[in-house]
User: Fold this.
Amino acid sequence: MGLKVFAPASVANMACGYDVLGFALNGPGDEIIIKKGGEKGLKITKITGAGGKLPYNVKSNTAGFAGLKLLEHLGLQDEPIALEIHKKMPFGSGLGSSAASAAGAVMAINEYLRRPLAKRDLLKFAVEGEQIADGAWHADNVAPALLGGIVLVRDNASLDVHKIPVPRGLFATVIHPKIEVLTKEARAILKKNISLKQCIAQTGNIAGLVVGLYNSDFDLIGRSLKDHIIEPQRASLIPNFYTVQEAAMKNGALGCSISGAGPSIFALSNNSLNAENIGNAMQRVFADNKVDSKLYISPINLEGTQLL
Ligand code: HSE
Assistant:
């Protein structure tokens, strides 16, 4: 007897909140299947959709490592468990692919073991798993992928995370141009220092975004969805970024910026029709420039990772 879990893609940073804000999408995402294994310990028995890019070795796989850390915590590392990873989303896309795998694995194991931990307490193990993908400890993809909704990470070290209310009608448009940007590399190019002026602008926007979300104030959300620090440094990694952003804004986006480390670009809007128009406009820019792209339109996923 086994079970299947779905773990969604997520959009980190939300423009102004580098490493501290993120939200989950309804799709795409990963499916993790868990069954009783034929031998001692956690084994990855099948990986599909990854084009041979993901390791079967549990310790070097984000899902495997997250699962192993959880099992060690529970003192059940010898439990015979077989894990299948069905990747139904692109890598290196800025959509939190490794976060989805890690969140899916810990959720699947916890459900299989009849829920020894509360979902919130799985977060630490999922972050440990995701960390092996880019070498950095941040929960802005993993927390929304696991817990759903829009999540503020007040402090990454202690995983002080908080779900923020999602205004009715808030929609995300995400476009993934078919190029690969590795998070590790997109982090490595960032300057280590910022000016006081940049800090003031960015913290004002983070606070404004949170207040806007609490009050369903779409104008305030729009004024706050700006990134003065990271976006200018990463924009050159994405072909036609500023033209796509301009097309989104002209078609009713509240704001538009890089999804996670890119190359995906996200926009938020206040209804599904605007979200579609924005998506079509973004996709036209890529098509005009002969860049293949895939479009995702989704409300904010409130559930996060779930048993199917
Ligand atoms: N906050 C992270 C970054 C998300 O922008 O590098 C990508 O993993």
